[in-house]
Amino acid sequence: MWHQLEPTQAHIAYVLIGAVSVIFSLVSLVFKEQLFIGEAIVGTFFGSVVGPHVLNWFNPSRWTDNVDNLTFELSRLILVIQLFATGAELPPKYIWKHIRSLNLVLFGAMIYGWLILSLFVWLIFRSVGLNFSDSLLVGSTFVATDPVLAAAIVGKSKFAERIRADVRNLIQAESGSNDGLAFPFVTLSINLILNRPDNIHAGEIVKDWVLVGILYQCAFGILFGVVIGSLGRYSYLFTRSHRWIDNESSLVFYIGLSLIITGLASILGCDDLLASFAAGCAYSWGGQIDFELQPSGDDHTDSEPLRFSSVVDLLLNTAYFVYVGSILPWNEFSPYASELVALGVVFVFLSRIPAMLFLQHITPDIRDWKDALFIGHFGPRGVGSIFCCLLAKHLLETRSSDPSSHETLLKVMWPITTFIVVISVVVHGFSICCFTVYSTAVKVRIERQITSESMEPVEPTDKPKSSTRRRMSKLRVVQPTTDDPDFPKYAYVSRTKVILVNHHGDVIKEFENKHGSVGVASRLVAFREGNQIVIEGNGSEIKRYDLESVA
């Protein structure tokens, strides 16, 4: 009678992923703006509970005989979409303008983190049979910080509004760049493991690594990404200027361009992750042109535009971390429990923070030790580490003439990497909440000490029309220590305009919003960049105003 009730594993997976997405969406403001917890923690916890180690409702090993390959391709898909978005959301020409700071933080943190974590992996796990070359390969899986988890810091939560724009942009650019740049660390470690036992000269190993790993995979990957991203930008601008494309098709364009990049780059054998990030940077090189869905109605006066890309990211990231939670090898953690805990402590305190504290003195975008400590702490590991680990396992199994000789390395690499990912998801996820509670308490105390000014909003006497006001965000401009009657008190930001209003409510200046038009003429324009209003003239920055939200 009930023979038609034969649910498959795919049907159960749809229900579970849909359920956690719906539940998280219904209480998303509670998680994101009160608890400051993103979808990664929720998805990982939910996946662990419904996975094979607890309820056994969501078990990817029943779907395929090769779970590693499925995980590898899912990780690639999430990364290329997220990396393209990361590059596209950076300020115009950010990489070129901040190349010194980015290079110092990027390569300084990557090289230091690779060496220090590899050293401790060797010290902690040499008792199980790992040599130093093996440890270098394990350490290379921790080189890349994760753009998915970093998104909770740089722009996908209210916490991001409390961070200076230059610090957020630096974290965002680093998390996008180093996923692709982790490839050379993996390939160099593989070459050392496979070739040194055969007494191949070190010069041959380095030459092969430079020619293939650096010049072809990375340099050509960047060039390829820039070309595709530029073509995508000009194509999109051309069709939009002729009104040939709508918002719905813009979403398809956004996703499709990411897939084209990773497909072609993989076929050519170059670094598809680095190509995706480079394409995103090229896509927004002359100004961000992300498509938006503006809220309408009087109930959304102060609402921010709803970005299609954020909706796609939220859905994909939630589903992915549910999947990750279900494949975590909890039973493989127990034989190395003490070693993994020791490595986790090293990861949290030594993998980035000492390097950032040292680099603060020579990095223009890091102003003091507090910036260095913040950037050093928020280096989460997630999708990129899982991707690099599976890539390393694949290269080791396919290129080695005797994979059984690396049995110990292949056995411990996956539990070590996934344990560090779990530590990172928990520590960096809940760190946002701790930082926010502390900064909120300090802010309230300081405001009560230095000002008695009423915080009630002042309405401008020269208001914009109601049809425009409905689509504008009202933000308070942070006053300097000495009150200036000509200093703007509020900024009204819409898709097309930025209006600055003084403390009397009079309009001081009205600008065209640089982000609201396809082309920007050679005149004064303004745009919002995180928690700042930036005013430009002839493409050069003239002034910045710090902002805070109006309660």
TrEMBL record:
<feature type="transmembrane region" description="Helical">
    <location>
        <begin position="251"/>
        <end position="270"/>
    </location>
</feature>
<dbReference type="GO" id="GO:0030007">
    <property type="term" value="P:intracellular potassium ion homeostasis"/>
</dbReference>
<keyword id="KW-0812">Transmembrane</keyword>
<keyword id="KW-0472">Membrane</keyword>
<keyword id="KW-0406">Ion transport</keyword>
<comment type="similarity">
    <text>Belongs to the fungal Na(+)/H(+) exchanger family.</text>
</comment>
<feature type="transmembrane region" description="Helical">
    <location>
        <begin position="209"/>
        <end position="231"/>
    </location>
</feature>
<keyword id="KW-0739">Sodium transport</keyword>
<feature type="transmembrane region" description="Helical">
    <location>
        <begin position="340"/>
        <end position="360"/>
    </location>
</feature>
<dbReference type="Pfam" id="PF00999">
    <property type="entry name" value="Na_H_Exchanger"/>
</dbReference>
<feature type="transmembrane region" description="Helical">
    <location>
        <begin position="36"/>
        <end position="54"/>
    </location>
</feature>
<feature type="region of interest" description="Disordered">
    <location>
        <begin position="453"/>
        <end position="480"/>
    </location>
</feature>
<feature type="domain" description="Cation/H+ exchanger transmembrane">
    <location>
        <begin position="23"/>
        <end position="432"/>
    </location>
</feature>
<dbReference type="GO" id="GO:0036376">
    <property type="term" value="P:sodium ion export across plasma membrane"/>
</dbReference>
<dbReference type="GO" id="GO:0120029">
    <property type="term" value="P:proton export across plasma membrane"/>
</dbReference>
<dbReference type="GO" id="GO:0005886">
    <property type="term" value="C:plasma membrane"/>
</dbReference>
<feature type="transmembrane region" description="Helical">
    <location>
        <begin position="104"/>
        <end position="125"/>
    </location>
</feature>
<feature type="transmembrane region" description="Helical">
    <location>
        <begin position="12"/>
        <end position="31"/>
    </location>
</feature>
<dbReference type="InterPro" id="IPR004712">
    <property type="entry name" value="Na+/H+_antiporter_fungi"/>
</dbReference>
<keyword id="KW-0915">Sodium</keyword>
<protein>
    <recommendedName>
        <fullName>Cation/H+ exchanger transmembrane domain-containing protein</fullName>
    </recommendedName>
</protein>
<keyword id="KW-0813">Transport</keyword>
<keyword id="KW-1133">Transmembrane helix</keyword>
<feature type="transmembrane region" description="Helical">
    <location>
        <begin position="372"/>
        <end position="396"/>
    </location>
</feature>
<keyword id="KW-0050">Antiport</keyword>
<dbReference type="InterPro" id="IPR006153">
    <property type="entry name" value="Cation/H_exchanger_TM"/>
</dbReference>
<dbReference type="GO" id="GO:0042391">
    <property type="term" value="P:regulation of membrane potential"/>
</dbReference>
<feature type="transmembrane region" description="Helical">
    <location>
        <begin position="311"/>
        <end position="328"/>
    </location>
</feature>
<feature type="transmembrane region" description="Helical">
    <location>
        <begin position="416"/>
        <end position="438"/>
    </location>
</feature>
<feature type="transmembrane region" description="Helical">
    <location>
        <begin position="137"/>
        <end position="155"/>
    </location>
</feature>
<dbReference type="InterPro" id="IPR038770">
    <property type="entry name" value="Na+/solute_symporter_sf"/>
</dbReference>
<dbReference type="GO" id="GO:0015385">
    <property type="term" value="F:sodium:proton antiporter activity"/>
</dbReference>
